[in-house]
Every structure is written in C-alpha cells, then in structure tokens.
C-alpha cells in the first residue's frame, strides 16, 4: 500500500472513531442534589448552605470524563470532576469569598491583593488561576508564589 493510501485510510479511520466517540457523549440535566458525588454535596453544604441549586448538568462521554456543572440561585457556577472535587468556580453577580481556598493560599492572595473581589477560581496543574473584579489575574503556584497580571 502506498503512503498516500495508508494516510487516507488512517484519516478515514480516525474520523469514524471520533464520530462514534462524539455519539457516546451525553448531557443530562437535573436539579436533584443527590445526583452529585458526596464530595460535591459536602462542598456545597459547607460553602453555599441554603443557596438554591437551579440546574445540574452532568456530562459523560468516551473521551470526556464525567463532569458536573452546577448553577446556583445566587449566580455562582461550579464545575466538579467525577469525584466531586471542584475544578472551577465562577460568579456572575457575587464576589467569591477567600474561604473557598485553602487557608495558606487565601492568606497569600490577601497579602498580595488586600480586599480582593474574586470573580472566578480555577484549579490548574501548577496551582490556581484567580480572576479579580478589576481585571487582574492572579496565578498562584503550589508553593504559594503569587504572580499578578492585568488581563488583556
């Protein structure tokens, strides 16, 4: 088989595989908190007690691991992984409290930017990315180094 024929066959096979994988992806919607992993339920009870859950989107698929996107009545959106650990927290209307972060991390952020008004927190491989209301972005590394930058 010539290289061109081999390449065409490989491309067609990959396209078919990706198409089948995307057919397997599912989105389910609910507002029933019991659909969440226990770790996510505990996080919500500890940090957002009494706040109404308006929607939970559960995404599953072959390539995509299960995630839970939770919309709260106060404008906060939280993405949890399959084990119920939060990956990202966004707020459209409220400032997120530093108490959502581990204590030492919250202290490091407060030292770098006192009275920070947090719009979103995202867990990254290196640590955390925190976006503030004043278009400042903080990159906080696991060793608690805080890098401050202006967003574009």
Automatic annotation (TrEMBL):
SUPFAM superfamilies: BT0923-like. Pfam families: PepSY_like (PF11396). Residues 1-25 form the signal peptide. Keywords: Signal. Residues 67-147 form the Putative beta-lactamase-inhibitor-like PepSY-like domain. It comes from the Bacteria. Gene3D superfamilies: 3.40.1420.30. Coiled coil: none annotated. The keyword Signal applies. The keyword Signal applies. This is PepSY-like domain-containing protein.
